[in-house]
Amino acid sequence: MLKQAGRTLTVGGRNADFQGFTSAAIQAAVEELRRAGDGGTIRLDEGVYRMIGPVRLYDGITLQGSGSATVLRKSPGVQTKLTADADYGELQAEVEDASGFEVGMGIQVYDESQHWGWDESNAVITRIEGNLLYFDRHLERDYQADDGGMLTNACSVIEVLEGRQVRILDLTVDGAGDRNYPIGGCRGGGIYLYKSGDCRLENVTVDNFNGDGISWQITEHIAVRSCTVTRSAGSGLHPGAGSTRSIITDCTLEHNGLAGLFICWRVRFGEFSRNRICANGSYGICIGHKDSYNLFEDNVISGNGDSGVYYRLEKPGNGANGNRWHRNVIEDNGGAESGGYGIFARGVAEDNVFIGNRIGEDPEGRQRIAVQLADTVSGFTFE
Hints:
Layout (H helix, E strand, L loop, with lengths): L6 E6 L5 E2 L3 H14 L3 E5 L2 E5 L3 E3 L3 E4 L5 E5 L4 E3 L10 E3 L11 E5 L10 E9 L2 E4 L14 E3 L5 E4 L5 E8 L16 E4 L2 E11 L6 E4 L2 E6 L2 E3 L6 E4 L6 E3 L2 E3 L4 E4 L8 E3 L2 E3 L4 E5 L7 E3 L2 E3 L4 E5 L12 E3 L2 E3 L9 E5 L7 E3 L2 E2 L9 E5 L7 E2 L1
Parallel strand pairs: 1-2, 1-3, 3-6, 4-7, 5-14, 6-15, 7-15, 14-16, 15-17, 16-18, 17-19, 17-20, 18-21, 19-22, 20-23, 22-25, 23-26, 24-27, 25-28, 26-29, 27-30, 28-31, 29-32, 30-33, 31-34, 32-35, 33-36, 34-37
Antiparallel strand pairs: 8-13, 9-12, 10-11, 10-13, 11-12
């Protein structure tokens, strides 16, 4: 049960409790509720908000916009080289050129050997002294200046870190992806949740983010309802890292660069229903490492660049097992020179059940093969 308590504070225009169309104004309202300690609601006026850093939400807080007219727009990207190694556990980095960075700005740090996956570090700038940047979260790795060490302002627009009973409602995130540097989906997203639970996103749009649209990692009971994710450079939705009992319903996931729905590593007992997953660059749904016992029903999966449903190549013991697929429409997937599969399962996967699905096959069309199963796949049944 989501907590219903605390005050309601407004952000935006001159009659708001916190005036200003900025990430700083929103965060100031959040911190006011956090100090009170009993949750509450932040209501955002209509308008375009300049987001230089992530809005961090805490237990029991609701962030609610005024519909599509409330737009949180990521500020343009800046980057600079590290001039000294930035070490694990540090809260500072020495850079070549700090101009363009601001206090309150979100950052990521990486080098050529430690980039993507969980190897990036993310934080918010707290102080700038010349070309020395101070920030609020310890670095996760050792980053070498002579290995292409970089610091950019790539960051999430909204994030929940170790939070419970958070709601995000009725707003749009504009990632301004063509003017920003990329960020990996394990450490960030247009909206990002980490080690959190019992959270709900509803009537939210994420558009043109240079990474994954909405990512949640190491979570339980995350609900994403009636949301739209389009034109993300990565995947639309990215549940991962042992996230359990996610519920994704009535969402539109279209024109994302990789998968509409990227299910990644031990995602279990989820329910994915009545979603439209179309025209994504590679896959409609991509599933793999121990992603098991999930239910997919009444989804439309069409027009994706390679395959409608793609089971990744996994080693024995790591397959996506025991998933159920009911009444999905899987058609017109594939490109002129690649893919063309409704369902393509590689590696090992066991005991997946398909009931009442419509899986197209047209040797002369986009989806040339309805189902392609590797020899190592077992227990797939179609009714």
